[in-house]
Amino acid sequence: MKPIKVGLLGLGTVGTGVVRIVEGHQDDLFGQVGSPIRIEKVLVKELEKARGIAIHPERLTDNAWDIVNDPEIDIVVEVMGGIEPTKQYILESLERGKHVVTANKDLMALHGPEILAKAREKGCDVYYEASVAGGIPIIRTLMEGFSSDRIKKIMGIVNGTTNYILTKMSQEGAAYDEVLKEAQALGYAEADPTSDVEGLDAARKMAILATLGFHANIALEDVDVRGISQVNKEDITYAKRLGYEMKLLGIAERQDDQISVVVQPTMVSKSHPLAAVNGVYNAVYVYGEAVGETMFYGPGAGEMPTATSVVADLVAVVKNIKLGVNGQTALMPFKEKKLKTEEQIAYKNYILLHVEDKAGVLAQITQVFAKFEVSLESVVQQPNAQNPDAEIIIVTHAGSQANMKKVLAHFEQLDVVKSIKSVYRVEG
Ligand code: NAP
Ligand code: HSE
User: Fold this and answer.
1) Are residues 222 and 271 both part of a single domain?
2) What backbone phi and psi angles, to 5 degrees, belong to 278?
3) Does 301 contact ligand 1 (Cβ within 6 A)?
4) What residues have CB less than 8 Å from 217, skipping those under 6 apart?
5) Would 328 be classed as within a structural domain?
6) Same domain, 166 and 257
7) What is the residue range of 278's domain?
8) Alpha helix locations (H) across 105-254?
9) How far is the CA of 80 from the centre of ligand 1 (A)?
10) Averaged over 41-48, what is the pLDDT?
11) Tens of pLDDT along 301-333?
């Protein structure tokens, strides 16, 4: 029987897992698609590098065009990462009628519309399940499982590295720098971990999820991003004391077709299921108008979990080949993008202030909130053991972020406020 031939671009962490699964699960894959799937050629940068798997040197190449130009190859699996030359290889593969499976969130978040348009023009498939939340089939869930619903909110812990760091800081009191090194050694972090810790990796994933959930083209620049590099031990201790866990959350919301997407360190109530997602695990909470609350949990990175999603995409492409429906299954965004303004974005905030410890200060502080119509849920003042200032911990009710900015700008000018130590979103 004629095998389905695959060209693999990349044999690093994910590529190695793809070879292991395709070769190790041949029987199960055959049973599902009715053809053998064969990895014909593999692109690497260094041909001589030692690999964690046995692979015949004749199957390796350091020339991508050996795969892109090979008419025998049906499907290109891209797990090399980066934007260029990767984008060129993908577009040229589609041009030659090859289907594409990719794990590349950077590429899909930045150039997804161009790649999907080329695929549509050529009648080819592009699947990218592994690009968000590694081993969790969240893209398929949004595209298929929730196709009947109107998604109102997607909240995700979609970066394993930062969740690993925050969990270790919270549970073991570990220092930020130490834990980041551990995450890098375990292969969770990106080559340049700045994109993990500054929230960019999560922002790319949230742009992909929001596009699928809300059917509008959400670009990376539409995501308001703040990472975890400024989160310190004190913030985590205070969060716990108030009944929250600090998490880097991506939050995409839709209200009357007005959309907002943010990534920011967030104090999540311990009663919310996202608060219990620890270590390198990811989770995506989806609220649908009809279904209500749902949550999807699993490993967000790593060789085998990520490869599981890549090979599931491969199976989907082969099934489409058998049915003759390639290039027809993906729905393009069909709604106009309308982003919320700062006035329309409303949520709860936690604010930690250091203030002069004297009569009337609390009254002055609360008057500022009143002036800008930000309602308060709780206010706690406590002496500070380290210096003569007092600490005021405030949690607001959900309020407009434009007003919240005015409050903070006012505090900058107020003599009794020594410093605004921290401001975080509160959820749950
Ligand atoms: P990786 O370990 O760095 O592997 C990259 C592979 O691509 C290597 O085999 C490398 O060759 C090859 N390569 C890179 N640039 C090349 C070039 N210009 N020409 C030829 N070969 C090239 O990366 P990874 O962690 O597997 O990640 C791959 C993709 O999956 C990325 O898009 C990443 O964002 C995504 N992803 C990764 C994870 C994860 O847990 N790691 C999870 C989800 C998604 P050599 O081996 O010869 O250096
Ligand atoms: N660096 C990413 C993470 C890998 O930590 O989640 C998976 O995309």
Assistant:
1) yes
2) -120, 165
3) yes
4) 113, 211, 333, 337
5) no
6) yes
7) 138-299
8) 105-122, 138-140, 160-172, 176-185, 194-197, 200-214, 233-241
9) 4
10) 97
11) 889 999 999 999 999 999 999 999 999 877 789
